[in-house]
Amino acid sequence: EIVAALDTELSGNAEHNGALPLDASPEHDDHAPTPDAFMAHAPTAAGPLAGCHVVITAGPTREAIDPVRYLSNHSSGKMGFALAEAARDQGARVTLISGPVTLATPAGIHRVNVISAMEMLEAVNATLADCDIFIGCAAVADYRLEEVAEHKLKKVPGSTALTLNLIENPDIIAAVTHREQPPFTVGFAAETRELARHAHDKLVRKRLDLIVANDVATPGLGFGADDNAAVLYHLAASGSEAAVTSHTLSPRAKRALAQALLDYMLPLYRAHQPTRSPAAP
Amino acid sequence: EIVAALDTELSGNAEHNGALPLDASPEHDDHAPTPDAFMAHAPTAAGPLAGCHVVITAGPTREAIDPVRYLSNHSSGKMGFALAEAARDQGARVTLISGPVTLATPAGIHRVNVISAMEMLEAVNATLADCDIFIGCAAVADYRLEEVAEHKLKKVPGSTALTLNLIENPDIIAAVTHREQPPFTVGFAAETRELARHAHDKLVRKRLDLIVANDVATPGLGFGADDNAAVLYHLAASGSEAAVTSHTLSPRAKRALAQALLDYMLPLYRAHQPTRSPAAP
After folding, report:
1. Which residues partner with A55 through β-bridges?
2. Of residues B58, B124, B52, B44, the one with CA closest to residue B94
3. How far separated are the first and last CA of chain B, in Å rounded?
4. How large is the C-alpha radius of gyration of chain B?
5. Which residues pair with B71 in a beta bridge?
6. What three-state secondary structure class fits B187?
7. Distance CA B38, CA A268 (A)
8. Which pLDDT value is given to residue B247?
9. Which of B65, B68, B197 would best serve as a mutation to test chain A binding (most A beta carbons within 10 A)?
10. Are A65 and B70 in contact (CB under 8 A)?
11. Residue B70: which of A73, A155, A193 has the nearest Cβ?
12. How far apart are CA A101 and CA A11, in angstroms?
C-alpha cells in the first residue's frame, strides 16, 4: 500500500530533477513492473545469489523546508544502481529503493521511488519481511526540518538572518539491524577524513555485517563520479569488536566496484546465514 | 576571469546532478563557445532583438552546508533555458547564467555555470557592462549558511536536534536595477499564494520594468513542469506605483510562453530605451 502510494509520486519526482531529455527517452521507464510480473521472473534466475532477495537503498533523500525549498546532498545514486545491476546479474531478486535521482531503472529490477528519509524508512519496512541482504547505499539525510512550512517562506523585511531548526531523522540501517532476525546488512560510510575510525565506529554501533567506506574528498571518486574506490571493513571471524578485517578495492568504475564488493561479500553472507535462519534454534 | 573560472566548474557540476546518460550524449555540450567564436556569430543575427545583448539567469542555486550537504530548491531551469532560446531566435546575443541543472546548452548561446548565489552575482556583474535586457529567471536562494563546514558534519551523540544559522544572500536583481544605468530588467515571482500582491510589491521594491508571476502551487505548471502560465505586471505609462497593468498568459509549453513573454516585452523595452541611453542628458 505504501509502495503503491510512493510509485504515484514518480513522475513528479523526475520532473523536479529537471530531467527533461531523459523523460523523453523510451529507456527512462520509471514504472516498476507489477509484483506479479516481477515474481514471474524469479524462478529463472541463476548465479551465486539465486533465490536471494536483495534490498538496496540508493541516492540522496530530500527534506522539505517549504513547497519550493529543500535540504539534500550530492549523492547521484550511481553506486546503488550499479549494485542493483550487479546483484541482479548474480541471480538475486532486487528491490531498489531510490531517492530523487535522474537514473533510468535497470531492467528486471523492482524500483520504489521516495523523496524523504521518512518515506524511505516506510518503503524499507515494507520490503523487509523476506529480505536476505540489505545494502544501505543511500545518503539518507541525518536531519529534517522540525516543521515544514505549508507556503513558501517569505523574507522578513529588516531581518537578515534565518534559523532552520532540524530534528534527527530515523536511522534506517540501524532499524534494519535491530530487528529480531535481521538480514545480512551492508552499510556505507562517506567521509571526508578519518575514514577508518568513522567506518569502524559505524560498523560496531550500527551492528553491520560489512561496511563500505568511501573517501568523498578525493576528486573524481565518490559522489556523482563514475568511478569509486572503497575500503571494506567487517569483524574478524572471532566476532570481537576489536578485531576488524579490512579489504581495499582500488579505484575503478562503479559497476566493476559493485561486482567486486558482492564477490567479497558472498562468503561472509554464506558464513553468516545459519545463525539467523528461521530453522535455527 | 571569473567567468573562465566558473566554466572550469562545469563538469563537476554536471556530475553532481547525476546526469550520467546526458553526459554520454554528444548533444550535451556544456562547453560554451569562446567569446571570440561567439561574437563572430553576432553580426549575422536578424529579428526584433538584433544587436541586443540579453542576459538571463536560470535554475536554482545551491548553498553548501558542508562538503556533501546543501540547501536548494525545485527550479529545473526549463523556463530560463526556453527564454534563452526564444531571445536567440529573435536575434539577440544571449548570455545564460545557470545554476546546477541537467539541461543541455542551446545552440548559439553563451552559457556560464554557477553553483551558489554568490557565484551567480559575480557572473552577473561580469556580464552587465554591455547588457541591454536582464531577465532574472533563476530561483536564487534567499539565504546561505553563515558558516560552511570544511568537513562533513557528524551527528553529535545524544543530541537529536541541529540548528542551521543562515544569512541573507545578496539580492542579485536589485543589484542590477540599482546600477546607475540599469538594463531593462525582468523579474520572476514564484509564489504559492497571494500572487498579485507579492508580484506588485516585488515590482516596485526591486524597481523592475516587468515582473512575471507564476503560481507554483498549480499541479503540472511551474517548477520542473514542461508547461507554465504567468501573469505579467508592469507600471502603467504614467509611471505611478499605484497604476499597474497586468497581462495574463494562459497555460502553454514553456517555449511558447517564453516567446509570448518576449513579444509582450518588446514594446515596453523600446519605450523604455531612450531614458537610459548613454546619449541622454
Report:
1. A95, A134
2. B52
3. 33
4. 19
5. A71, B63
6. strand
7. 59
8. 93
9. B68
10. no
11. A73
12. 12
CA distance B226 to B255: 9
User: What distance, in Å, lies between the first and last C-alpha atoms of chain A?
Assistant: 33
CA distance A23 to chain B (A): 11
B227 touches A at CB < 8 Å: no
Q: Chain A within 8 Å of B201 (Cβ-Cβ)?
A: no
- Within chain A, which residues score under 70 in pLDDT? 1-44, 239, 273-281
Residue B7 and residue B112 in contact, taking contact as beta carbons nearer than 8 Å: yes
Res. B56: pLDDT tops 50: yes
Whether B161 and chain A come into contact, CB under 8 Å, resolves to: yes
Angle between helices A254-272 and A78-89 (to 10 degrees): 60
Amino acid in the structure at residue A40:
A
ipTM exceeding 0.85?
A: no
| Ramachandran region, residue A132 (left: φ > 0; alpha: ψ -120 to 50; beta: rest) | alpha
The answer to whether A226 and A214 are in contact (CB under 8 A) is no
* pLDDT, tens only, A152-174: 888 777 778 899 999 999 999 99
| Beta-carbon count within 10 A of A104 CB | 18
Q: Which of B20, B67, B102 sits opposite A18 (nearest CB)?
A: B102
The one-letter amino acid code at A30 reads D
Q: Are strands B110-113 and A93-98 parallel, antiparallel or unpaired?
A: unpaired
In a 13 Å sphere around the CA of B270, the CA atoms on its Cβ side amount to 9
Report the residue of chain A nearest B158, measured CA to CA. Answer: A168
Give the Cα separation of B248 and A6 in Å (integer).
Answer: 35
Rounded CA-CA distance B119/B171 in Å is 12
Chain-centre distance of CA A56, in angstroms? Answer: 5
Q: Is there a contact between A10 and A31 (Cβ–Cβ < 8 Å)?
A: yes
Does the pTM of the predicted model rise above 0.80? Answer: no
Could you give the CA distance from residue B80 to residue B59 in angstroms, rounded to a whole number? 7
- Sort strands B227-235 and B244-253 into parallel, antiparallel or unpaired: antiparallel
Give the residue carrying C-alpha cell 556560464.
B112
Closest listed residue to residue A57, CA positions, set A119, A144, A2: A119
**Among candidate residues B58, B91, B90, the one with its CA nearest the CA of residue B186:** B58
Compute how many other C-beta atoms are within 10 angstroms of the C-beta atom of residue B125: 14
C-beta separation of B59 from B98 below 8 A: yes
User: Model confidence over A70-88: pLDDT tens digits?
Assistant: 999 999 999 999 999 999 9
CB contact under 8 A, B19 and A146: no
CA-to-CA distance for A80 and A87, rounded, in angstroms?
10
Q: How far does B107 lie from chain A, in Å, by closest CA?
A: 15
From B68, B165, B226, residue closest to A216, measured CB to CB: B68
N residues, chain B: 281
